[in-house]
Amino acid sequence: MPVALKTGVSLLFKIVRKEVLNPNVTLMEIEAPFVARKAKAGQFIILRIDEYGERLPLTVAGYDREKGTVTIIFQLVGMTTKALAQLNEGDYLQNFVGPLGRPTDVEGKKRVAVVGGGVGCAIAYPVAKAMHDAGAVVDGIMGFRNKDIVILEKEFNEACDNFYMMTDDGSYGEKGFVTVKLQQLLEAGEQYDEVIAIGPVPMMKFVCKTTEPYGVKTVVSMNPIMIDGTGMCGCCRVTVGGETKFACVDGPEFDGHKVDFNELMNRNSAYREQEAEMDSHLCRFEKLGQELIK
After folding, report:
1. Is 196 in contact with 112 (CB distance < 8 Å)?
2. What does CATH list as the number for 4-100?
3. What is the pLDDT of residues 147-178, one digit of tens each?
4. 3-state SS class at 86
5. Are 151 and 21 in contact (CB under 8 A)?
6. Is 166 helix (H, G, I), strand (E, B) or coil?
7. Domain with CATH 2.40.30.10 in the chain
8. What class is the 111-221 domain?
9. Cis bond upstream, residue 33 (ω within 30)
10. Alpha helices of the chain — where are they, by DSSP H?
11. b/e 112-150 (16+ beta carbons within 10 angstroms → b)
């Protein structure tokens, strides 16, 4: 039976597995049977570490319905993700809500290309697997800055019929961006029912620019600023085809050729100064704490 400790009206969700994929990316498998029962590729969860923690949205990177577990993969980019990475197997999370958002549409596809960039490959992998399990031929393209930060290569490779590894500096696989390989495949005459791109916003934007001349439907997964996950706060709004959409309920996947990427990038950078100030503030206190320990 899945383990959950009851405190008042809250269930605490146990971390049953932790794996450091690279110095900045961590995988955790969380015991959350009700979420695991319904989760599908493309959806996300929102967690809180404790009752004082902020709400952190993370895409579902995998699930095991029999074990009742959900896998999350996150990059250490802020206070909450860094605090989450300090937890270990046997520790508990205060909240783990989901699955949220609309799942990836896997029906009726004969051949697809799934393009993942950086930590976005953690989300691209379950999409590639779901497409493959639904009977589609899957071409997978993974891209990283260099060999040292590659993650999930084996898993992604197993989910794809054809697999291509790209690194910006050429230290592993082929040298170049993911768009280089995608362009080569399209020029060679590969016919795709759909291209799915998941990764940094600029990468997704240029994947869409690559496919647009070929008229290939291209789906992107949005990860804008998000708070409640229900569409009530409006923080995750994106403009798609001239209309306002909410990534948490209308997405997170949208037609990439209709997304206003420039607006999205501006919104995502709205709090950059405050984030930098917070990081600086935390670094000073961390240094002070280390000095006190000495």
Report:
1. yes
2. 2.40.30.10
3. 999 999 999 999 999 999 999 999 999 999 99
4. coil
5. yes
6. strand
7. 4-100
8. alpha beta
9. no
10. 33-38, 79-85, 121-133, 153-158, 178-187, 201-211, 261-268, 272-293
11. bbbbbbbbbbbbbbbbbbbbbebebbbbbbbbbeeeebb
